[in-house]
Amino acid sequence: MRAMVLERAGDPLVLCNLPRPEPGPGEVLVRIEACGVCRTDLHIADGELADPALPLVPGHEIVGRVAATGTGVSDLRAGQRVGVPWLGRTCGHCRYCRTGRENLCDVPEFTGYTRNGGYAEYCTADARYAFALPEEADPVALAPLMCAGLIGWRSFSLAGSDAIERLGLYGFGAAAHILCQIATRKGIEVLAFTRDGDRAAQDFARRLGASWAGGSGEASPKPLDAAIIFAPVGALVPRALREVRKGGRVVCGGIHMSDIPTFPYADLWEERQILSVANLTRADGEAFFPQAAAAGVRTETAPYPLEQANAALDDLRAGRLQGAAVLVP
Ligand SMILES: [Zn+2]
Ligand SMILES: [Zn+2]
Fold first, then answer.
1. 64: CA distance to ligand 2 center in Å?
2. Which ligand is the nearest neighbour of the Cα of 87?
3. This model's pTM is above 0.85
4. Which ligand sits nearest to residue 85's alpha carbon?
5. What is the pLDDT of residues 36-58, one digit of tens each?
6. Domain that holds residue 310
7. Sequence-ordered alpha helix ranges (H) in 128-185
């Protein structure tokens, strides 16, 4: 099968012809229809995340069809459409798994990081961590939901979704453009903070329902109940903190961020909180996919042939994308 492989961090991916993987016990073989390109893939390719399983097939926003099932798989059948997310497997018995926080499992496996992912024609996945997806939908449109959508949803939950009337989103890419649609559908006012001067992103945010869009260097026109930072820019943390009300949360939605500058304690005072979001749980998926369907989320995608994975990563790195890049094998 064709696959784009990271052989060494910092190098471009290489087109390889790999043997088609065999599903082990409890696994499914997935024929990939589409795989989204996430900023995390960029951090892995650039060597900003430790110890990827090199040589590695990246990609964890996988939409495909079950091509074969390993022994012991009863919930999924051949031909069925599934989504394979970042959380590839958990141990089931560490303190986190036992307390409903499998996203923090002590010995997890991550798709496209510690096990091969979706920049390929086929992959295997633990059947227990694959989500059933709508059969009729466009696979390219579904792909960004698999991480950008899920992580946006988890960030929104941790930001205190039920108590938010006005939400700030810092960085208006794949995750924000999905969450903006869900939040505004719930009647929440969304303010979008983009790279300074990025008019295209600001227009995009307003088109998706944001009441205001401006540069992240600008002050918010109104106080925020919560803010979510999707851009990997630590300097945004104290900036967002100054914009949230008493008791408000600033949630960092990315896996990697530049250092956070110091700031006066007064900006944190009055029970403001800063927190990070790590990974996802299967329960997040069970909550998120119906919400995305109910909100009629439409993802903005830029499809690339599988062989163009390096161009997709370069476009993401340079901020040339609106919405999400998706590889099609
Ligand atoms: Zn565990
Ligand atoms: Zn991701």
1. 17
2. 2
3. yes
4. 2
5. 999 999 999 999 999 999 999 99
6. 2-146+280-328
7. 139-142, 148-158, 174-185
